[in-house]
């Protein structure tokens, strides 16, 4: 890419802004090396990364990347056999910890579906938990190694502490002996040796080695002979400590070297993750979107904003090029936004080719160009010297040598700085040459001749920057399809120029030129109104499409959910019935075997088999109960003698009474009479031929007809009694009894206790109590059923 173009369009400022969003040194390095690509596949991959960066930052705020430094040099040193310093090992540990946290973070939830590129990068990272734990255990800080780093180090440091204590104890006793010779009654250190501060005049009174003196020379720091040997031992221990620390650091460095390939991979890819997230953060800060990319030279920037202008102040513009026309000629007053339009077009194109989101509305398109050229001057003066013209023309000459059909050419004030007639002719000739080469062109000019040229020449289109005559200020809006009007007379009039001067000036211009300016003004007014109407229509259209899409998505989801629920219900029903049949057959077979071997099989085994069969029957009844109920219609009123379906027990019965004040109806089911709320009854269709009842329902009705409200268990063993009790409670519950009496007698109390323990755990029992005197006293237990 042309370096001069990058500089003119201030691409480097975009890179600087992007770099500020990065945390790691590697990501910052990647950003500094970032250049626009001319490969559409590479660009689309880069934009896909940016899109995931958007998604990750929006959903999760950030990934757990808490390292900033690049460990490339550190890992190289370890591979070369150097001993790493504690601070370097701590940084390696931070990399290891960051790797583990990233893996844990991305493996939580459905993040792979949301951000597949980021997930793949994190998935490739290698966790080295053993090395992480070892460094964390042995290196406490950049200046401290843990006592527990090795047994030898622990032993050496314990010896040092003991020796230090002895030296201090010895010197403490000397403080009393030599107190009159000391400057201060304190123990101090000089060169890792404990000394006493002795007054210079008493040097001979304290035998020992002089290690230092004060700045004034009045104090000598003397190591008494009595502690010299102890200090020597401490010195030796300190040297051993240093050697052991060196050994520990070298050992850890070797382990880092052994894992250097994995660590280098992790180091680079964590930086790469930060690079992706940086692009996402940058795009979000700009309120940017991901554009569509093409290679046919088509640019359609909707509500484009220059990224270097405050987004609260910049006026969005629409820029189209390359489809109906390949060259856009922009006219209008100075400081009206022509140059900004050029720079916006060029800079957003470069950003998109770099793989960055751009500040435009969704649906915008950018083409990939092999070359982008720009000749944009910042001079806004009316008077331009010959040297300025020469400078611009030199640049134009260089551009013309390289343009082709895959180039974008941006030229500001083409032909300015020389005679207007010659400048206009030269500008038209240059534009024709570039157009014939197949390049896409955006050019700005003041020359009226170029307005007519753009209107007449095929493949060219006029555009102008809007100017508000009432406020004498530009609106910075770009109007494509109409040339700019000079507005010189209107501006002069607003500024207070005498009207007679203005009228005289009008007479000096040709009638054709005046009519042309009037046509431009009328065209401009109509275009503004039309654009406003189009914007309103587009807004309504977008809203309608969004509503349509939302409703379509909801319908699709509901249809899918409905189909899934139906399929799931059908599959579950088939599974339940198949499983129930299989288990029922197995239990019946088991019961048959029990019957054959009744003399040797215990009652507990029989009870267990019977319980399994009952549970399976209950389960099937429960699963089909709702479907069974749905076969009957809801009742609003009943008549005495009418047959109804009672949903609470899934049985048919006959109505014996009208609803009472509580809304309950007395219904007879077999020999049982019970009160049932009206809303628990369903209407039964009476057929001429009543189907014979069989199966589970028939069994339940037979039980209900023969059930008693009490059971006598006296004389039975505990096992026999519990078997019969459980069977009886099941039958009583099915029959709808509210309470029953369990007769167990008084006796030794063993049977009574066994029955009461069983009742406490039974699923049909709501409560129980000992019988009253008239009910049998302690020989009877009264049970209330659920």
Automatic annotation (TrEMBL):
Does Repeat appear among the keywords? no
Q: In the Enzyme Commission scheme, what number(s) does this protein have?
A: 3.1.-.-, 3.6.4.-
Question: What SMART domains does the entry give?
Answer: MUTSac, MUTSd, SMR
- Matches recorded under SUPFAM superfamilies: DNA repair protein MutS, domain III, P-loop containing nucleoside triphosphate hydrolases, SMR domain-like
Against PROSITE patterns, the record matches this protein to: DNA_MISMATCH_REPAIR_2, SMR
- What GO biological process terms does the UniProt entry carry, in alphabetical order? mismatch repair; negative regulation of DNA recombination; rescue of stalled ribosome
The domain of life is Bacteria
How it assembles, according to the record, is: Homodimer. Binds to stalled ribosomes, contacting rRNA.
State its role: Endonuclease that is involved in the suppression of homologous recombination and thus may have a key role in the control of bacterial genetic diversity.
- What's the name of the protein? Endonuclease MutS2
Q: Which gene encodes it?
A: mutS2
């Amino acid at each position: 890419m042309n370096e001069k173009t990058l500089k003119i369009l201030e691409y480097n400022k975009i890179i600087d802004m992007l770099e500020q969003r990065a945390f790691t040194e590697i990501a910052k390095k990647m950003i500094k090396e970032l250049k626009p690509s001319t490969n559409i596949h590479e660009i689309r991959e880069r934009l896909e990364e940016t899109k995931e960066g958007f998604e990750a930052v929006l959903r999760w705020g950030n990934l757990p990347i808490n390292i900033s430094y690049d460990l490339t040099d550190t890992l190289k040193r370890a591979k070369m056999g150097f001993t790493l310093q504690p601070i370097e090992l701590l940084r390696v540990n931070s990399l290891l910890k960051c790797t583990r946290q990233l893996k844990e973070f991305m493996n939580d939830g459905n993040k792979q579906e949301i951000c597949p590129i980021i997930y793949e990068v994190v998935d490739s990272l290698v966790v080295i938990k053993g090395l992480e734990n070892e460094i964390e255990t042995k290196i406490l800080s950049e200046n401290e190694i843990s006592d527990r780093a090795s047994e030898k180090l622990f032993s050496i440091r314990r010896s040092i502490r003991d020796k230090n204590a002895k030296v201090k104890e010895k010197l403490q006793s000397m403080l009393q002996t030599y107190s009159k010779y000391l400057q201060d009654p304190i123990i101090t250190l000089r060169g890792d040796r404990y000394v006493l501060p002795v007054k210079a005049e008493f040097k001979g009174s304290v035998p020992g080695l002089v290690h230092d003196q004060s700045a004034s020379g009045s104090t000598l720091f003397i190591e008494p002979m009595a502690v010299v040997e102890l200090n020597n031992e401490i010195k030796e221990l300190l040297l051993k400590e240093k050697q052991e620390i060196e050994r520990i650091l070298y050992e850890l460095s070797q382990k880092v070297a052994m894992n250097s390939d994995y660590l280098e991979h992790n180091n680079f890819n964590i930086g790469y993750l930060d690079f992706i997230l940086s692009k996402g953060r940058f795009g979000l800060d700009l309120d940017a979107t991901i554009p569509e990319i093409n290679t046919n030279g088509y640019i359609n920037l909707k509500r484009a904003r220059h990224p270097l202008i405050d987004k609260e102040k910049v006026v969005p513009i629409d820029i189209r090029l390359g489809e109906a026309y390949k060259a856009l000629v922009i006219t209008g007053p100075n400081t009206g936004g022509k140059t900004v339009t050029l720079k916006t077009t060029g800079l957003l194109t470069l950003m998109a080719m770099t793989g960055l989101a751009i500040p435009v509305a969704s649906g915008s398109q950018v083409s990939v160009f092999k070359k982008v050229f720009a000749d944009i001057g910042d001079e806004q003066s009316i008077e331009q010297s010959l040297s300025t013209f020469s400078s611009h023309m030199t640049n134009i000459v260089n551009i013309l040598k390289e343009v082709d059909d895959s180039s974008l050419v941006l030229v500001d004030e083409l032909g300015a700085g020389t005679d207007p007639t010659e400048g206009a002719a030269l500008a038209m000739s240059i534009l024709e040459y570039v157009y014939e080469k197949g390049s896409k062109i955006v050019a700005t000019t003041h020359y009226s001749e170029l307005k007519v040229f753009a209107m007449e020449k095929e493949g060219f289109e006029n555009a102008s920057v809007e100017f508000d005559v009432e406020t004498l200020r530009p609106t910075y809006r770009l109007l494509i399809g109409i040339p700019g009007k000079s507005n010189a007379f209107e501006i002069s009039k607003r500024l207070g120029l005498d009207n007679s001067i203005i009228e005289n000036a009008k007479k000096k211009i040709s009638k054709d030129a005046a009519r042309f300016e009037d046509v431009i003004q009328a065209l401009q007014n109509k275009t503004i109104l039309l654009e406003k109407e189009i914007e309103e229509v587009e807004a309504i259209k977008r809203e309608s499409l969004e509503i349509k899409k939302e409703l379509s998505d909801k319908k699709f989801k509901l249809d899918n959910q409905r189909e899934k629920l139906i399929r799931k219900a059908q599959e579950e029903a088939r599974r339940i019935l198949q499983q129930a049949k299989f288990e029922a057959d197995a239990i019946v077979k088991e019961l048959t075997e029990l019957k054959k071997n009744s003399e040797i099989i215990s009652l507990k085994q029989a009870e267990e088999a019977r319980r399994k069969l009952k549970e399976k029957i209950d389960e099937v009844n429960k699963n089909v109960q709702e479907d069974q109920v749905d076969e009957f219609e809801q009742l609003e009123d009943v008549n005495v003698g009418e047959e109804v379906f009672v949903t609470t027990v899934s049985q048919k019965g006959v109505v014996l009474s009208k609803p009472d004040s509580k809304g309950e109806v007395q219904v007879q089911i077999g020999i049982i009479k019970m009160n049932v709320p009206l809303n628990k009854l369903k209407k039964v269709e009476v057929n001429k031929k009543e189907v014979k009842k069989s199966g589970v329902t028939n069994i339940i009705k037979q039980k209900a007809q023969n059930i008693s409200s009490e059971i006598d268990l006296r004389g039975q063993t505990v096992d026999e009694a519990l078997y019969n009790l459980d069977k009886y409670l099941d039958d009583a519950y099915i029959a709808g009894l509210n309470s029953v009496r369990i007769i167990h007698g008084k006796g030794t109390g063993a049977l009574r206790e066994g029955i009461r323990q069983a009742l406490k755990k039974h699923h049909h029992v709501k409560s129980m109590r000992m019988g009253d005197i008239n009910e049998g006293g302690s020989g009877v237990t009264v049970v209330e059923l659920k």
